[in-house]
Each structure stands twice: as structure tokens, then as C-alpha cells.
Amino acid sequence: MIAPLDALILAGGASRRMGSDKALLEWKGRPATLRLRELLAGVVDRVWLSRAVGQELPEGWSESDVVRDREIASGPLRGILSALAAHPGRAFLVVAVDQPLLDTSMLASLVDARDPGLGATCFLDSDGSLPDPMCAIYEPSFSDSASPWLSHGKGCPRKVLLNSPVKVLSSPGIRLRDADSPQDQAEIVRWMEGRQVTLEHFALLCELAKVPSETVSTRAVDLAGLWLETADRLAIGFPMDSFRPVRNDAFAEWTDAFAAGDRISFLPPVSGG
User: Fold this and answer.
1) Which of 209, 216, 225, 260 could hold 195 in an S-S bridge, CB 3.0 to 4.6 Å?
2) What backbone phi and psi angles, to 5 degrees, belong to 89?
3) DSSP 124-174
4) What residue ranges do the domains of the chain occupy?
5) pLDDT tens-digit series, residues 170-184
6) 204-236 pLDDT tens trace
7) What pTM does this model have?
């Protein structure tokens, strides 16, 4: 039997590097925890908030929505295992409270790829090198996989993922970026406020745009997001994988980030894409 799927927003850390409680952050005027709850509500049965004992609750939450940390392991692993222990037989889609670039399509793709026969389903991190534990689905059996680590007081779920049978998906890139410090927070805010880039159009896209290049403002955080904005605006009737992204005259990946002032194009098949 497949375990029912809830979600858990990890927000019980001390936030030492940020210097203030990350659960109380706001992104574009919206409390971080409420924004994530709205995103997660579309793909799971119920959303829970992970908090340490004694931590205050952010706006919009009641104690009945909270999983308080138990004396299990430490760090993020404590929050995950506390939720699995508090609600036996349920699986949890776990995200970190300081991940403001997550979106519905990314969460839905994780749920669609879920393998309930393994301990967890996760993405590779934003660098594409290691399993990322902070946007992952943890099955009830994950508790057994983690048990050898508990006697060592470890708090890193990534080490469990690296030593357990799990399903690992390709990296969604920059969308996994977290805000671990005020500097990270400032950089992410700049992305969310939007940037201007130059779109260079070829063949079919030049015909649709009616110009060979244009300067556009975008709030997309990666090339896939910019493509979706462009495809909607120009009514492009072909799927993204029919094109190939180019950033500053070099072929790129759809998960790549970009900077203000970059020159970007989406090459259709007739142009060699």
C-alpha cells in the first residue's frame, strides 16, 4: 500500500547564519511559510510546519498544524524523523523554509516521479552533484534507513540519502537555491524583482516576435522559466524540448540561471537546435 503523502516545511533551525528566524521571513510581501503552504497544498493531502520546542509560530499557523521536534538525531534530520514518528504510515514531501524559488511545476514533477518502494525520492542539488535533502519525499521506511545514524547524533539527511536506496532525479538548478544568509537573501530578492535581458530571435521565433531581438523584463530564475514566459507571450506552439537555449553565444542548459544584460536565444530545429 502506498503511504498517503503530506508535506513538511522545515522551519525549526536556529538560523544562525541568517541572524534572524528564517520562518519569519517575507518574500515579495508574503510570509515565507504561507507562500510555501499554498504551493504545497496543490500536491499533497496536508501541510505541516516543523518547529523546535519553544519556538513561536509564524503568522497564520496554529499548534494543530505543527510537528514539534523530538529528541531524535539533530538538525534537519531531526525534523524529518519527528514528522515520520508523529504520523506513522504517512510519507512527507519535505521542503526548507528558506527556498523561495520553488514552484508548483517543480513540486508536481517530484510527486509524479515518486517511488514509494524506496526510502526517498529527491533531486540532485543545484550544482547537479549530490542528492539534495531539502526538497524530497521521505517514505515511512526512511526512518529505518536513518536508524544507524541516530547513535552518532548526526543531523545531515544527505548522508542517509547517500547510503540508502533512494531515487535521485536530475537537478532543477537554481530553483533549489536557499537563503542561508542575508547576502543570499539579497541576491534572491534581486532575482524575484526581475531583470532585463536581450532575447535574440531566429527563424520561427523571429517571425512570431516580428523583430530579430528585443529587451524584455523577466522574473524567471532560469532559462526554462524564461522560455515559458516567452512561449506564452509569443504563442509558440511547440514544446520546449524542440528548442535549444543559448546564453551569451554558448549553448546552455534549461536549468541554468542568467544575469541582467545577458543575451539569450532559443534555437529552433531549423537553426541547428
Assistant:
1) 260
2) 85, 0
3) E-TTSSSEEEEEEEE-TTHHHHHHHHHTTT---HHHHHHTS--EEEPP-GG
4) 5-186, 194-271
5) 998 888 888 888 888
6) 899 999 999 999 988 888 899 899 989 989 999
7) 0.81
